[in-house]
Amino acid sequence: AVAIVAGDAISSLPTSEFLRRADAGCVDPKGALPSPVIPHGYDRVASWHIDKGELTREQLAMVPVLASRQAMRHPLSLTSAPLSVREVLSSPRVAPVTNLLECARRADGGAAFIVADSAFIDATLGHDALSSASGTPSPRLGPFAATGGIVVLGGGEASGPLYPPPRVSEEMFSCEQAASAAFSEAQLLPSDIDWWGLYDCFPICFVRALEAVGLAHKGQGGRWVEQAHEATRSTEYSPSVLPVNTHGGLLGFGAPWEVPAMYNILEACQQLSGTAGPRQVVGARRALVYGNGGIFSHSAVAILSRPVD
């Protein structure tokens, strides 16, 4: 068994120190990106999509609005009220097509979970720990009972350039390759997934993820966001209407730098075990989680499931 633990404290940092550390962690040797480096790197990709006519400025702004609507339902979220597109577009500009409310929310926080193979579970808790006729976790699970012993069905990783090239092209992105590997190992299709945890440090990361994992057709991620924005206008919308980042993601829940991809996994475990409360997606059996590193530099995707016999 392996305990995976992460924590960070960046909202406690003065803004100047936060920016210094962020820039130092992603320095382009050619100096092509101005400070703040990370927002400008993602902004370059967002501008590329806008110039191609695949995305509008308003559709990008709708992403943090969706995140705020989702995050309001989580008791530990930083978000207490929904954003509007106007508020997002009126917030201070950070890069040409990126405003402050389109940046992952600085937060202090941590997360932890345990990963173990079936042999370990069987040896320490017995086979019935992961399956039962009633579909409920065995009492012998102890601390595992909260998630019912969620199973990893497949995973994939892929890498692209360490820094965004001056000319953006599809060849630099790796999420689609990672997702394809995960689907192949799990022997599943996007239509088999009930819940999605997609990395959303900036709106363009979320939009590209929608397309890479098969939720939206290529070039239609912005349109998908627009439709989701319309479908969730009512504060009473069902979680099943938008089974993506029900905790609010980096843009709504909070992003303690080294932790937020783990929040996707923890929310997936709650969804699959039926313990997500007012965020619960009805009948969630399988989940896909995606984490992104650098400026589209690395992608990791895992497909999780309820316990299976």
TrEMBL record:
Gene3D superfamilies on file: 3.40.47.10
Domain Thiolase C-terminal: residue ranges = 174-306
Q: Which residues cross the membrane?
A: none
Q: Which CDD domains match?
A: SCP-x_thiolase
> Which GO molecular-function terms appear in the entry?
acyltransferase activity
Q: Which InterPro entries match?
A: Thiolase-like, Thiolase_C_2
Pfam families recorded for this chain?
Thiolase_C_1
Please give the name of this protein: Thiolase C-terminal domain-containing protein
Q: State the species of origin.
A: Calcidiscus leptoporus
